[in-house]
Write a structure and sequence with these properties.
This protein is an all-alpha fold and 84 residues long. Helix content is 75%, strand content 0%. The longest helix is centred in the last third of the chain and has 32 residues, at 42-73.
């Protein structure tokens, strides 16, 4: 399976996985905040937590996917690349 991904940048795959995980975890955190605080400002804090989890995990996935791609295949190991 990794041979099919050889030479591809996995930053976009990591970003997609991070965003999906961030949306889910952010939603759970937002629901917990709303349930625990039960105040007028709880919805505002829950929204900030939801967006924050999504942005942080999406960025982390992008960074880790890019780093994994470089570590696994190097920056010059791209099939069909004439600049070798």
């Amino acid at each position: 399976m990794l041979d099919q991904l050889r030479g591809r940048n996995l930053a976009h795959v990591g970003c997609t996985m991070g965003l999906t995980l961030g949306l889910f975890i952010g939603l759970v955190v937002a629901l917990v905040i709303i349930e625990v605080v039960r105040a007028a400002g709880a919805v505002n804090w829950a929204t900030i937590a939801w967006f924050g989890c999504t942005a942080i995990l999406g960025g982390l996935g992008y960074f880790l996917g890019d780093r994994f791609s470089r570590q696994r295949w190097g920056s010059r190991d791209v099939p069909g690349d004439v600049r070798k």
